[in-house]
Amino acid sequence: MLTGKTVVLGVTGSIAAYKIANLASSLVKLHADVHVIMTENATNFIHPIAFETLTKNKCLVETFDRNFQFHVAHVSLGEKADVMLVAPASANIIAKMAHGIADDMLSTTYLAMKCPVLVSPAMNVNMFNNPVVQDNLKTLEKYGVTVIPPDNGYLACGYNGTGKMPSEQVLLDYILREIAKEKDLKGKKVLVTAGPTRESLDPVRFITNRSTGKMGYAVARQAMLRGAQVTLISGPVSIAPPPFVEVVNVESAQEMFEEVKARYADRDLIIKTAAVADYTPMQTANEKIKKADGELSVPLKRTTDILKWLGENKREDQLVCGFSMETQNVIENSQIKLKKKNADMIAANSLRDEGSGFGTDTNHLTLITENGAVDLPLLSKEDAADKVLDELIKLHQ
């Protein structure tokens, strides 16, 4: 995912410094070229050799290190870096960065950076809340630096409060948002529906389907990585929400429709992956049982066809994509759905294809538009999501 990308990690003197070794390892596994710069105090918490072993690059500490190559290290990293993350960021380095002080390798390299810079403060709660530190963080934000909010919890100093560095996964998510994908959806608003819906029969039982939400969540995540402002309307699922995405949780098909109706008007792309229950009970099973003891059948009525409603109400410059799950005549049935629902694209997949359908981590899609059908190979759901977005961008041009 990060092949050809250069990440610079700045590590300062904090007990949280050891966590950056895991972050560096994760970045290397994603094929990033990782360079670590440490302050002298940071070396009291983790040795530079640990980072050199993980990254296969020299860990820089001293500004005037005589073991150099034929370039000025802080300048060359400033030229080649795609993103810089300072984590853990002490109050000292935050102050230096905010006021242009360059008296060590890390602060000097920061001033030479041309790429996006992220800062993850980590310190005692009273230090973090000090007005001077808060003013320095605001100054950094004024200069375009992204400040990653610290967590609230038990701190190494024994206090409880805000000042704890977030997990390595959170830091990785911030880096991926910056550099994982080209920002070809920047400025676009994307609405995605995902997962199943549930129609209650009584307080215990409900009608649903086998959807896990994996495809919709992958679409939302990839759209976010490509710069879009994403809202994900999700039925009940058991997977973690994608970062930096507004998630709206619903249960019934009617709730999903109401949330879509409330948000669709200002969206550029609307992608419906949710496998909405087609029917909802006209009365509860308990009510039916009262009328006929032992009778469990419940009269049903059709739920709102969300994709059809979107097709009927979309703007001329708005694109609507639906997903089609078929067991036979995949192309023919999906082409009929494209016209009937007035959609711009149908992403069709077959339950008969191995590795495709509900609950899998892969999908075999055929993207159907008025221009024809594009048959994709079996892909991970993230890669399939990118192909869907690629095709929608083409239609939007």
CATH class of the largest domain: Alpha Beta
- Major beta sheet summary: 8 strands, mixed
Which structural class do you get from the secondary structure elements? alpha/beta
CATH superfamily of the largest domain: CoaB-like
Low-confidence parts, pLDDT < 50 over ≥5 residues?
none
Measured on Cα atoms, how large is the radius of gyration?
26 Å
Per the CATH scheme, the topology name of the largest domain is Rossmann fold
Q: Which range does the strand content fall in?
A: 15-25%
Record field, number of beta strands? 21
**Number of contiguous helices:** 14
Number of domains: 2
Strand neighbour order, sheet with most strands: 12-11-8-13-16-17-19-20
Shape: elongated
Q: Any idea what the CATH architecture of the largest domain is?
A: 3-Layer(aba) Sandwich
- Give the N-to-C terminal Cα separation: 26 Å
- Report helical residue fraction: 25-40%
Give the overall average pLDDT.
Answer: 90
